Model the fold of this input.
Amino acid sequence: MTETLAHQAIEPSVLYFGTPVSLISTVDASRTTNLAPISSSWYLGRTVVLGLGRNGQTIRNLEATGECVVNLPDVRLQPAVEALAPLTGVAPVPPEKADRFRHETDKFAAAGLTPLAADLVAPPRVAECPVHLEAHVVQVHGPKSAEFAIVEADVVKVHARSDLVIEGTSHIDLERWAPLLYVFRHYFGVGDDVGRSFRAEY
Ligand SMILES: Cc1cc2nc3c(=O)[nH]c(=O)nc-3n(C[C@H](O)[C@H](O)[C@H](O)COP(=O)(O)O)c2cc1C
Done:
């Protein structure tokens, strides 16, 4: 039995209790590539839902061209993720970001990452990321005047680095997969496996 301890009301500035980092690659109407780290993402079946600031280039590209790759970095790629963190594809940099962000046209080069062609969408995959999800935008929710947009996209192709795939299956080897998590603006790896769900397949 777990001991029940007292709770208290708090006012945290963000509610980032812990989600995986994704690198979203997109292109604009003239096929210029952009790449941005996000942590607001979740999955329902083959649907991925992304939470994106309206002042970024990523949402503009998604509304213009309707495609992306959700690239999942592992813990070893934290320095590359953090190299992308202060960059935006928007020029000029929006005033509210001007003190801490700079415009960058080649984010792959800025982070030492390598573009790799996708199969079904125009934006490139990130070769160094162990997992790539090619996706088509289905709907963008929320008014354009809002601070954030909620993007619903269909995952149409999944790529996983072969050393992470259990041979002869489509299962990811959980002993080898080391997703990068974002917890209150710190980066973490996952801890111990503390049990399997009754629906776990292996
Ligand atoms: C680890 C991490 C997680 C982030 N999560 C999000 C997020 O979920 N949604 C978002 O809009 N921005 C998020 N950001 C901030 C964007 O990366 C940042 O606004 C960036 O300038 C967007 O690039 P873009 O304007 O080229 O699209 C995150 C940044 C980092 C480093």
